[in-house]
């Protein structure tokens, strides 16, 4: 029997609370859409996912080591990496109900619906906001001009809340890996190709958190930065795309509900040469597919900008060739919470059983 979009996700949200997988954060105070708490079974599910990832990415390989870096890094980190200037999303507000949304998400939802009908424009960017209805109140075209909204979460260290104490909660774990590149190379005696893996919390000031644990302001990441010789990056990138896709299938995820999405050149992040997302058919209202993991070719961008900002050489001297070069970086980055949601959705089934009244109950 077919179900309408969102039906399964709603069933899983309800089941997750009843069975002790996931609870609304601060529920006795009304809860919040931007954070969730994991119950007894949810904790075990997350730990199993992290253990499987760590075993696959670190313990079973000779060319990857682990790291646990700080959540709050020097604020110059985010200035040099480009996050302060470019880590932002287009914010628009409905002038009727005053709810705020990401303009690009609104355009993508309309584009996806039009694509199913066969009359989609060339790209989501071509969707005119004046034709888009508000998801909250239904008013069409009452949007403010989109403006850039920073995704960085600020905090202050020290006794005075001024510019001198301004810091950011990390929006990704990757930068802590780049800052420790030389430390790891020296202490572990690794040479490219090799990787540094990390699991940890990250924070993003999402405009519209939602879809259960898919998009939240506090989340856990599983990231690995794989350092390779320039010129070998494209081969390694494709290899990691294939390996990461196979990881989900090997753990039992239905392959027919997985796909690879190639980011258009004009949509790439400021550090990326090529990015491919592994997407899962979550069945969200307005958008059937969602990113499960991204695999990016970050080139030598990060090591280069941090080297310039600090004056510290973050490169590698190849003794065999006598050459010194800055490694390119291939980054498989997955979300623990999105993985948990994927396994819950993929495992969810309903069957029917006769009841005492002669009817049928779903269970």
From TrEMBL:
Family listed: Belongs to the class-II aminoacyl-tRNA synthetase family.
EC number of the protein: 6.1.1.14
Protein name, entry field: glycine--tRNA ligase
Organism expressing this protein natively: uncultured Nocardioidaceae bacterium
Coiled coil stretches, renumbered: none
GO molecular function: ATP binding; glycine-tRNA ligase activity
Biological process per Gene Ontology, one example term: glycyl-tRNA aminoacylation
Keywords of this entry: Aminoacyl-tRNA synthetase, ATP-binding, Ligase, Nucleotide-binding, Protein biosynthesis
